[in-house]
Write a structure and sequence with these properties.
The protein is built from four helices and no strands. It has helices at about 5-15, 20-30, 35-45, 50-60.
Length: about 70
């Protein structure tokens, strides 16, 4: 599944999994909040993720973040 993600989607996934807000992600990536919402929605649909906990669990299971980094 990760192979099908764009580099930007991976960045958004990582930052969501780290518990960052949409606004924080937008600032970090220098994109609009709407663009963050677009990427997050696309990820949620493609990976069947609904909550931040789902994003975090997925990111840990696929080595995008470590369990220590998510807390």
């Amino acid at each position: 599944m990760l192979d099908g993600l764009t580099p930007r989607q991976r960045e958004v996934l990582q930052l969501v999994a780290e518990g960052r807000s949409r606004k924080e992600i937008a600032v970090i990536l220098n994109i609009s909040v709407k663009t963050v919402e677009f990427h997050k929605g696309k990820l949620a649909h493609e990976l069947n993720l609904q909550t931040t906990a789902d994003f975090t669990r997925y990111a840990i299971e696929h080595g995008i973040i470590s369990a220590e980094r998510s807390s």
